[in-house]
Amino acid sequence: MSLDKILSISGKPGLYELKAQTRNGFVAESLADGKRLSVSIQNNVSILSEIAIYTFTEEVPLREIFKRIQEKENGEKSISHKESKNKLEAYFSEVLPDYDEDRVYVSDMKKVIQWYNILQAKGITDFTEPEEVASEEEE
Predict the structure, then answer these.
(1) How many whole angstroms separate alpha carbon 60 and alpha carbon 96?
(2) Is the N or the C terminus of the chain less surrounded, counting Cβ atoms within 10 Å?
(3) Residues 12, 15, 20, CA angle at the centre, nearest 5°?
(4) pLDDT tens, 71-84?
């Protein structure tokens, strides 16, 4: 499953998988408990593949940050998103040394780490770009 089908829904905890599109929105399934819910177009929804983190030079896609965490942790779970502010900042500095401290808040770090741990626990660990996968299959 690619990050193109994984959603963060504002006001709802955790991550969701996009299951089907409806006339007024779509149906999503919680990665935590498998419950399905209908999401209106009016909800603020973010697709993980379209999220990026600010650095001083560019915006780094979330999938790249997940790859870096995965390499740092050898594919295992990362630290808890409930760690202290100092620990989270130190950890994030190791993963993304040039992140923009003025634009990336501790709450953002918590989300990234929490999302990585959710995906890792569900076995969703392929953080490559879909285009790369398609071009490799054609060769």
Answers:
(1) 9
(2) C
(3) 95
(4) 999 999 999 999 99
Helix, strand, coil: what percent of the chain each, to 5? 40, 25, 40
Domain that holds residue 32: 3-48
Longest Cα–Cα distance of the chain, Å, equals: 47
Q: State whether residue 20 is helix, strand or coil.
A: strand
- pLDDT band at residue 130 under the 50/70/90 scheme: low
Question: In the numeric block, which tokens belong to residue 37?
Answer: 């819910």
For residues 114 and 65, membership in a common domain is answered with yes
The domain that contains 116 carries what CATH number?
A: 1.10.10.1650
Residues 56 and 102 in one domain: yes
Q: What is the dihedral of CA 38, 42, 43, 45, to 10 degrees?
A: 100
Range list of H helices, the chain? 62-72, 85-95, 106-121, 130-138
